[in-house]
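Anyone else keep sequences and structure tokens together like this?

Example one:
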Amino acid sequence: MRTYSLSTAAFRKADPEPSLDVIASVGFQCIELSGYGSNLNQWNFGGADDLPSPPTGRAATQMRRAIESRGLRVTTLHGPPRLNVLGAPTESWRTASMKVLGEHLRFAADVGAAGMVIHGIPNPEFLPKEQTIAELTPKMVDAMRQSVQDLIPVAEQSGARLLLENLPYTVDLNEPYPLMAMHQLRPFVDQFPPEQVGLIVDTGHAWTNGDEPESEILVAGDRLWGTHLQDVPRENPHDNHWVPTTGELDWPAICAALDRIGYQGAWTFEAIHGRDGETAQELARKCFETATSWGK
């Protein structure tokens, strides 16, 4: 039986408790907690590079109770992005990222999440300009490997799996960039225990990168433990984050691929932007209507 979940990313600028009310009212029973870009005084965690620590102790318990009191549960936590990556090419950058990601992985467990979405390789716009991609690639790959190794004990203790996401860096690099797509990420995660390290496929990221989402799903295979279901146009995609079926991806093929691999994780809708200017509430409703049409 499928588990449908809704990312809270569309509500990132809204008060959290009324947002949870809306999500529950449209019919969802599960959420991916995604506070990045939000007012940190409201969600208490987010995506700025100078993040405060996430809620702990009583504050984390209160957040979990607020979620569960509405008949919702957290399937995944979206870890903080931007500079908070596994593959930081300098040790000072990597050390700072490890502190932030470790805290959020513990927070994921506190709110009952089975996994935390993590961005592995940094956006090229943040890289040192004095070095080429070719020079930085081995440093980033080694940093990703070391960072995963450092976080595995935290994942093992917390029970929340690390989920590495395919990423849509669309800048014209004119040279290969590592560990963005599943054909790169799947062999990478095979080095690590499946109980602590898995993959998440973002359908819009895949097509923005020029990859068929269904092919990415099949490559991820039994290491796939998360999804970001979002739509984009076939021509000139820009990681649009539209409601699935409102763009031009092949959703019957995507659903069939997930069924083919026996996918057991949450089918998470990550619609952030309305193609026609929809509100966050309207996006949530449309996502649930799509989920209902796909059936159980």
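And example two:
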Amino acid sequence: MIAVQSTPAGWQRGIAYSLVMSAIFATIDASAKLLGQDTPIVQVVWGRYLFHFLFLAAFVFGRTGFKRLTQTRRLGLQLARSTLLVGSTASFWLALVYLPLAQAITIGFASPLILTALSVPLLGERVGPYRWSAVVVGLVGVAIVVRPGVGEMHWAVALPLVTAVLYAVYQIATRVLSQTDDPMATLFYTGLGGLLVSSAAVPFFWQPLTLEQWLAFAWLGLLGGIGHTLLIKAFTLAPASLLAPFAYTSLIWATLLGFFVFGEIPDLWTVVGACVIIASGVFIVWREHRLRAAAAQPESA
């Protein structure tokens, strides 16, 4: 398990890492959107995982013993988790080929809502009426962004929803593995599994690459490695419930990158839907934090 440093200074550093990480992940998505304009998405995903794994092998895994990296009690779940992450990445980056960056990320923010709903049948957790209400409100926010039945709806709006479901199940697998496996082993299998799964698919979509495309893949892998390293550091310094709301700052970066790089301006419905989704997600995090704090208090005599 990851030990959390419970000091205000540690929390501030954790929040700073989380903010930088959110900007990095938004930059990765924008870079993938650019690459996807003339490169098959499966090939982009493969390049991202190839250089991500090489970066981790050079700067992270080299400092950790081989036994610690490879030891797992749930190899099947580790590989399934990696496959879920590859699937969520591919579906989201394919959506970016057709949808504005901010709109796709906004719809993808349905993942915490789906995670809350799936935690009941898959983890046996109890979700009370307040959090169920927040889930419903959040899904209404998704409907505001997608606006089914209003005008012509692009089929690609379904892809961020697929991403949200896959990523929610990925997070559930992460929770399960955190009870049995070392975090560094999980990070290792994330990179290795992602590389193996994408390598199995990429021959069917391969096209010759230019030097600029190879450099772009290296850029994605470098950013991915830095982002995941910051993620681990953030969670060793501050509680997850404190850091979770700051993930929504990636929407700010996505809006800025969408405007300056692609000339995209979110419409009113996307902004309204984003506010509803973010509000419901923050409420769920706040509610879970309160329930855990109450459960941790000793019963009064």
